[in-house]
Amino acid sequence: MKRLVFLLVALPLCAAAQDAKKAIEKYQQMLSEGSPAELWELEGETLWKKPQGPKNASLEKCDLGLGAGKVEGAYARLPRWFKDTDKVQDLESRLLTCMTGLQGRSLKDATARLFGNADRPSEMEYLVAYIVGQSRGHKMAAPVGHAKERASYELGKKIFFYRAGAWDFSCASCHGEADKRIRMQDLPVLSEPAGAQKAYTSWPAYRVSNSQLKTMQWRINDCYRQMRFPEPEFASEATIALTHYLAVTAAGAPYRGPGTKR
Amino acid sequence: MAGPMKMRATLGGGFTDVRVLMTHPMTTAQSGQPLHFIQNITVKQNGKTVIEAQISQAVSRNPVFTFRIQGGAKGDKIEVSWLDNKGETNSIETAVA
Questions:
Q1: Which pTM does this prediction carry?
Q2: Domain A34-261 in this protein, CATH class
Q3: Which residues between 26 and 65 in chain B have a beta carbon less than 8 angstroms from any beta carbon of chain A?
């Protein structure tokens, strides 16, 4: 009898939750059909081709892993090991390499404004939008063939499950098991291919609620803020390794970004 | 200088569907900053005005608009322009695909 009562109460609640989920999915679909992220892509392409810095050079000869100037499909194969720097680099850290190398800018200049705001987005955000847009439809395939790539992946995995900070959180505290959410946002299980594929292929993304395009480095930075960790350094070995772990876990899924979020 | 715009115009089911993205701060009175928002939007089909819209502050930053025009043909020239309260303006043109 007790069980019957429970069922009667639970059924309408489930239906309501299902309706809410459907409504959210519809909203997400509407957002992605006309995403201002496309405006960031246009601006980013202009910046990519604009001569800047002491060498008055554009970034058009930047090697994102597929050869100098090859942008199409490059993001889907990042992070990866680069011979010239002997480091595993993600998109943002590679862009910094090109800004300092090709354009002759100081690291201080290139990193002066990594996160923009709605009134004045950053150069990094524009460039990232353009480059990731050139990988739409490409299957995610971050390599792990090189010893440094394997080490980076393993480090990222370790960081993902490493609990610390004021709340003793790890990435896995929120993204390690199914059916967790923050308010109405379902949290993907990023240690499983299905969850990682769904989430990772929709980042970087335009946030409608603050009218900004957010990079993957920002996403990780803000996760650390939410976990009350010290702020991680932009494009550090740790943030790149974590990105690498997510990228490899998401392998095989076609890239769908830059995405659009609530 | 006004940021980029992007537009797509497609033909289907006897209609021309226009989708246009605009870069604009759309600053409202609530923000404490000087008002800055798009007031007028004009849609032209082969040079002839087919839609004239007046919009308010109650529209998001970097807005997206879709319009449906009756009829039309492939290759029609669609032009969308906006004018804001500071007199700034921008426009974009595309051929119906």
A1: 0.88
A2: mainly alpha
A3: 60-62, 64
Domain hosting B73: range is 5-95
CA gap A38, A142 in Å, rounded: 24
Say how far apart CA B55 and CA A115 lie, in whole Å: 31
Tens of pLDDT along A194-214?
999 999 999 999 998 889 999
Which CATH number goes with the domain that contains B84? 2.60.40.10
Q: A131 and A44 in contact (C-beta within 8 Å)?
A: yes
d(CA A203, CA A191): 16
- Number of separate domains in chain B: 1
| Residue (of A42, A84, A39, A81) closest to A61 by Cα position | A84
Residue A137's contacts (CB-CB under 8 Å, 6 or more residues apart) are A254, A255
CB pairs under 8 A between A and B: 34
Spans of all domains in chain A:
1-33, 34-261
Asked if the Cβ–Cβ distance from A208 to B60 is below 8 Å, we say yes
pLDDT in tens, chain B (97 residues): 578 999 999 998 999 999 999 999 999 888 888 999 999 999 999 999 999 999 988 899 999 999 999 999 999 999 999 999 999 999 999 999 9
A46 to chain B: nearest residue by CA? B4
